[in-house]
Design goal:
By secondary structure, this protein is α+β, with helices and mostly antiparallel strands.
């Protein structure tokens, strides 16, 4: 259940070794601007017209962003909750106009807060309350509270549980009331992405077979197997 209002996708990104950092827009409804992230990315538009390099570019982008995030998802959630008390419902490693940030959604009472955390330093860059433009915040909060009722596994717990599968880049509550899991996305050493379920009640990590990435191929399975020796049956998603 991602409530982040800015979920940007960039073409192949590479870390800038030096130079002047540029400001980035915030991902909420506030009128101000968050501080600049210490981790800056640069768009790399080198692509073949036939798109043959798309998968390779995506893998390079994933790898660059995962390596740039010195602060783990669990630590980003911890920092966000230290700034804004409540329940972390999602966390996502995201590009904000060239600056890499952790976007953390926190539910406090019936209000939704968005907190941006620097993935290089762990410092909170900015936080604000989401405006209820659609009038559905109360229903969202009720659904989340219902999904988390009796849960023993938090978003940070889920991130830690899935960390041995790769670099966790996203944690999101599956709040439809049926699955009873956190949805977690990881990036492998070679940029392959994988999706996992972490049980709300038992913290058990299982592969999410319901979703697949466009760039997932046999190599992706190899990357995942590097992290999870139990998933070596060679079956396709």
């Amino acid at each position: 259940m991602k409530r982040n209002l800015v979920i940007a996708t960039v073409a192949a990104a590479a870390l800038i070794g030096g130079g002047t950092a540029t400001a980035f827009a915030t991902g909420g409804d506030d009128d101000g601007a968050a501080a600049k992230s210490s981790v800056q990315l640069k768009n790399d538009d080198r692509k073949d017209d036939d798109g043959k390099d798309d998968d390779r570019d995506d893998a390079a982008e994933n790898t660059a962003e995962a390596k740039a995030a010195k602060v783990t998802a669990a630590d980003a959630i911890k920092a966000a909750l230290a700034d804004t008390s409540g329940t972390a419902v999602s966390a996502e490693l995201d590009d904000e106009d060239g600056g890499l940030v952790w976007d953390v959604d926190v539910l406090k009472g019936g209000a939704w807060h968005n907190v941006e955390v620097d993935p290089g330093t762990g410092k909170v860059l900015g936080s604000w309350v989401d405006k209820d433009d659609d009038g559905d915040d109360a229903a969202d909060a009720a659904r989340v509270n219902s999904a988390l009722k009796g849960a023993s596994t938090s978003a940070a717990d889920a991130a830690r549980a899935a960390a041995d599968k790769g670099t966790v880049t996203s944690v999101d509550l599956d709040d439809d009331g049926k699955a009873g899991v956190w949805d977690v996305e990881t990036t492998g050493a070679k940029g392959a992405e994988a999706d996992w379920h972490v049980g709300l009640m038992n913290g058990k990590v299982t592969a999410d077979r319901s979703d697949s990435h466009d760039d997932r191929d046999g190599q992706d399975h190899d990357d995942r197997d590097d992290h999870d020796g139990s998933d070596d049956d060679g079956s396709d998603d």
